[in-house]
Amino acid sequence: MNIRLNGKRYTDLNMLPGNIDPEVIAFLQEWYNEKEEVIGHTSGSTGKPKEIRLLKKDMIASASLTNEYFHIGPQSRLLLCLSPTYIAGKMMIVRTILSGADLITIKPTSSPLQNIEDDIDFAAMVPMQVETTLANPETRSRFARIKQVIIGGAAVSPTLEQHLQELPTRCYGTYGMTETVSHIALREINGERKSSAYFALGKVSFSTDERGCLIINTPHLQQQRFITNDIVRLVDTTHFEWLGRHDNVINSGGVKLFPESIEARIASFLSQRFFITAEDDCRLGQKAVLVIESLPWDEAECQQLLSRLKSCLSPYEVPKNIYFQEHLTETYSGKIVRKIK
User: Fold this and answer.
1) Pfam families of this UniProt entry (predicted)?
2) Which of 49, 55, 263, 338 would suit a FRET pair with 154, their CA atoms being 20 to 30 Å apart?
């Protein structure tokens, strides 16, 4: 064992102090045992998280791609603010071990920079953590001192993306899953190279199937091909734009509607959480409807919103009904469940 945690180097598991997160210790014990695999869990995006076995050599290959792209080395300081129970947290530890960097560890919290005074070179956060951090002037200034941040686990909203334009920190959206051992593609969210397209890391390449869903070729992993349910616009073999989940597509009168695309365009009109989903319709087959996390609005407020939505949506995309739910249901990983109660 050889790892730097919070400024100190440890070469024996028994040397780890009691203030280290037990989840970090548990992963290190698993990493340094004689087995070739570690146990991971899927994010639970489409149901209860499932147990999955991850090859250590695949994790090393994945960590190497990230370390190379972000120039992570012995001089780097990384921040672990995600649970090592899931792949994002595990991979921050593996990147640290592989690079010889110093890993600052804190228990996962919605405001991870609250007690962080160190300058950080590289961090991984979920959108909710970034939003909470930017809402407070003190933690916002600390975020601005981080050199590079990858943001994953859920979609980055247009509002959050706009807030990140004002900061010097280089921010990247991630594309990947537990099965691909963390991200295999990145998207620049801010700065001069801001883009709507994801680009492949290393020798990863892309194609699509007959549904228009992404196929990922991963020569650095034992499983070298993954077929996804993500509908994309393929730019070329190493770049794609994400359109939405195949499971969520609405077929309205023969027109395919992508809820995630609609949500991105109307996000500025709503301060509450919301989602677009399908409802059966005798004429269209399916129609788009809007579900807002709120107590019911009066009819005038609903009509005012609809009139604003018509300014940026096609007739088929405009929600045919608006529903209200006091609390939206979430998956284990915090993603909204797109079902009408």
Assistant:
1) AMP-binding
2) 55
